[in-house]
Amino acid sequence: MSPTTVERISVRTSDDVVVVRQRIRALAIQAGLGLVDQTKIVTAASELARNMVDFAGGGVAIIEIVEKDGRTGIRCTFEDHGPGIPDISLAMRDGYTTGEGLGYGLGGAKRLSNEFNIETEIGKGTRVIIARWR
Amino acid sequence: MERIPILKMGNFLLVTIQMEMHDRLAMTLQDDLTERIVQTRARGVLIDISSLELVDSFIGRMLRDIAAVAMLLGAQTVVVGMKPAVAITLVELGLTLRGVRAALTVERGMEMLRASMPESLLASMKKTPRKA
Fold first, then answer.
1. Given an 8 Å threshold on Cβ–Cβ distance, is B57 in contact with A108?
2. d(Cα B126, Cα B132) in Å, to the nearest integer?
3. Does B17 touch chain A (CB under 8 A)?
4. What residues does each domain of chain B span?
5. Which CATH number belongs to the domain containing residue A97 in this structure?
6. Which of A92, B47, B50, B84 has the fewest CB atoms within 10 Å, i.e. is most exposed?
7. Contact flag A104-B23 (C-beta cutoff 8 Å)
8. B61 touches chain A (CB under 8 A)
């Protein structure tokens, strides 16, 4: 997977979450994703970006247009230096929340993506990578 | 501060969300709507989301909370105009918005609200324009 376009966005506030959504939408259109695929990846990203604001004091979103096996897609990486997630399987469960959301963030983001990867370390931070292909 | 306008039409309040929803805007709408329901004694709230390109769990929660609060204040809520891509995404996200009623168009939403009103109220609503 070699990225052709890369954008980095600092995510500190809920206004930054809106910026992330707008940039991912723009790149998803550029990558040729259909309307439903665009909506899915943007919604997944909105959940993950908000998680960083709510639980990790913010972080960075990296958006890339990527090519793999002749397919084009969007890959988004969300990196924070927050407290980390003690129990990932619990956090992935629908309805589980420690904050103000509905608790669909992680599990929902996984369902809305073709690829989903999460790495977390207590006291160090969390990195979530999602991708959606055309 | 930017706000989403709330229009009064008879016993109903109409809200059209035409800008990108950020969190503060969502909170303000919730507060403003609650206030207007009490102030105008509205019996129904119609929220048009046909311009929304996305409903994530935060906006979903806002819609659900608005409907729940409105119900406690005696007003029904109908959400209209959800885009198909948004509906598909919401279902996959796992959000069912239980308690929020929906209609495809504004007209059907209005019909739905009227249908849920007691007969006596509908009669008085019909009389109002003639008096004016």
1. yes
2. 11
3. no
4. 6-124
5. 3.30.565.10
6. B84
7. no
8. yes
A&B contacts, CB < 8 Å: 70
Instruction: Enumerate the residues of chain A whose CB falls inside 8 A of the CB of residue B55.
Output: 43
CB contact under 8 A, B93 and A21: no
Give the pLDDT band of residue A125 (cuts 50, 70, 90): very high
**Is A101's Cβ below 8 Å from some Cβ in B?**
yes
DSSP state, B75?
Answer: -
The range of the structural domain enclosing residue A59 comes to 3-133
pLDDT of B81-114, one tens digit each?
Answer: 999 999 999 999 988 788 799 999 999 999 999 9
ipTM of the complex: 0.88
Q: Are A8 and A58 in contact (CB under 8 A)?
A: no
Question: How many domains, in total, are found in chain A?
Answer: 1
Q: In terms of C-beta density within 10 A (0-12 exposed, 13-18 middle, 19 or more buried), how is residue B88 classed? A: middle
* B49, B17 contact by CB (below 8 A): yes
pTM for the predicted model, two decimal places: 0.89
> Residues 76..95 of A with a Cβ closer than 8 Å to B: which?
94
Q: Are A14 and B57 in contact (CB < 8 Å)?
A: no
Alpha-carbon distance values, B18 to B50, B92, B123 (Å): 8, 24, 33
Span A24-47, pLDDT tens digits:
999 999 999 999 999 999 999 999
Among the partner residues A21, A50, A112, nearest to B92 by beta-carbon distance? A112
